[in-house]
Amino acid sequence: MKCSVLQMSRLSWTACVLLLPLLLLTLQGGVQGCFIRNCPRGGKRAVDSVQPTRQCMSCGPEGVGQCVGPSICCGLAIGCLMGTPEAEVCQKENESSAPCAVSGRHCGMDNTGNCVADGICCVEDACSFNSLCR
Q1: Residue 80 contacts by C-beta under 8 Å, 6 or more apart in sequence?
Q2: What is the fold of 54-133?
Q3: What does the alpha-carbon distance between residue 110 and residue 58 come to, in Å, rounded to a whole number?
Q4: C-alpha Rg value of the chain to the nearest Å
Q5: Range list of β-strands (E), the chain
Q6: Residue 41: per-residue pLDDT
Q7: What is the mean pLDDT of residues 2-10?
């Protein structure tokens, strides 16, 4: 049985239509990245049963702060340092495959953030003023 060019074209088109979504889903799972504790479902640390097992890295002058984002170092004695040389060490947190836990009282919408300095609450990769953190 011989296939005509038209039949081969339809067969190829059908295969592409069926395989393209599968390929896109596979690629999406492989390239999705995240930092410290803001990983979406499917991200590199997104295993639901895995809870943070270690404290986030120390940073700031004399290591008195903790990393709460890729360029954010916060501590009670120093407030929050964002994008400064003291906060650069926080980028190394991305190299770890294990999630870390940010210390501090829960705050923010639905208590998903942590008080990291006097009056400052950080949620995932954003920080804001919060009266509960005093």
Answers
A1: 68, 72, 73, 74, 116, 117, 120, 122, 127
A2: Neurophysin II; Chain A (2.60.9)
A3: 26
A4: 22
A5: 54-55, 58-59, 65-69, 72-75, 79-82, 100-101, 106-107, 113-117, 120-123, 126-129
A6: 54
A7: 56
